[in-house]
Amino acid sequence: MPKIAIIGAGSWGTALGKVLAEKGLDVILLARRKEIVDSINSLKENPFYLPGIPLPGALKATLDPEEALSKSNLVIWTIPSHTLRENLYNLEPYVSKIRFHLSGIKGIDIETTKSPLQLLREHLGEDKLYFVLGGPSFALEVAKGLPTAVVVAGPERKETQKIQELLAWKYFRVYRSYDPLGVEIASALKNVIAIASGICDGLGLGLNARAGLITRGLIEIIKLGTKLGGKKETFYGLAGLGDLVLTCTGALSRNYQVGLKLGEGKSLEEVLKEIKQVAEGVKTVSVVKELSEKFEVSLPICEEIYNIIYKEEKPRNSIERLLARSLKEEFEEVENERA
Ligand SMILES: NC(=O)C1=CN([C@@H]2O[C@H](COP(=O)(O)OP(=O)(O)OC[C@H]3O[C@@H](n4cnc5c(N)ncnc54)[C@H](O)[C@@H]3O)[C@@H](O)[C@H]2O)C=CC1
Ligand SMILES: O=C(CO)COP(=O)(O)O
Description:
Strand order of the largest sheet: 3-2-1-4-5-6-7-8
CATH superfamily of the largest domain: NAD(P)-binding Rossmann-like Domain
CATH class of the largest domain: Alpha Beta
Shape: globular
Radius of gyration: 20 Å
Number of domains: 2
Largest sheet: 8 strands, mixed
Subcellular location: Cytoplasm
EC number: 1.1.1.94
Number of strands: 8
Order of helices and strands: EHEHEHEHEHEHEHEHHHHHHHHHH
Distance between the termini: 48 Å
Binding site for substrate: 106, 254-255
Structural class: alpha/beta
Catalytic activity: sn-glycerol 3-phosphate + NAD(+) = dihydroxyacetone phosphate + NADH + H(+); sn-glycerol 3-phosphate + NADP(+) = dihydroxyacetone phosphate + NADPH + H(+)
Number of helices: 17
Protein name: Glycerol-3-phosphate dehydrogenase [NAD(P)+]
Helix content: 40-55%
Low-confidence stretches: none
Mean pLDDT: 96
Bound molecules: 1,4-dihydronicotinamide adenine dinucleotide, 1,3-dihydroxyacetonephosphate
């Protein structure tokens, strides 16, 4: 039986740990705080990230990387993207021999502009197998056992199907894909559009505006995503459209909440203090700005989210600029990017 270590006992790591432990798999969470470890091991709850959700008796947690990783053959990475390099550096002695790595991370590294799988591969080598999990999946709903459909992407080999089967559970339906880069890009970029959608609602711009923004946001994701090497169809799938709709309309989304509060007039500093968990889009938007310039792709919504977050632009000015842009054919830029 596989032994699975989950690095990061936050919302997503704990929810995935619950699914796998319910399946009877041998799974352990590597946490950073003793109170979380104690609570998971003795009270069978993670009150800091998933309060009120009873965890299976078999789900264990530890602070000790040796205990979590020495006998594991699959590592699931569920930490914020900007901490991956630091964690890899600290954990390299323990993870460098493990063959299977699954990323649950939805972000891009701000220093290197690399995706989590690119970083893992660079640090751990080509002799390992790398997979990514994407799709519309609020940790809280998964932890409550509510029906969820996700996608796992990896190399075009039988092992991707094995990971799919390993993760699938009665309320957790897993599709497979062979476009890991596309899934990673879709998962990271949707967070930026979720911030935009929150801003739109915070300003009270209405449902027409939000639907238009989500659709044009998807076009921006496709424009940059295909330039970076993702397959177009991936952006219409669970990791793209699916997660985009969820996080742009679901109040449980931390990225949406960041936008909502910004739209209501709070400063970024105030907003980040209120939202104690990671909202990946805040950092991802700076990478998106860099990549859009490098690849000469015009991404007006992402550009305005960058201005609001990093240049203290007033959200209303951004909306006005977006509405005043020159008139276009609906798909002309997508076609142009592909030509
Ligand atoms: N929460 C959700 O609904 C989902 C989250 N994700 C993704 O999973 C990743 C992790 O997110 P969450 O579990 O939601 O975050 P979270 O904020 O709930 O937990 C983050 C975890 O990472 C750990 N961590 C390890 N090293 C860290 C460091 N140097 N600095 C800060 N924290 C560190 C924290 O201790 C904590 O256990 C993100 O990329 C997120 O986009 C993906 C799907 C669903
Ligand atoms: O990615 C997610 C659900 O699929 C979680 O979104 P947030 O990080 O915005 O909460």
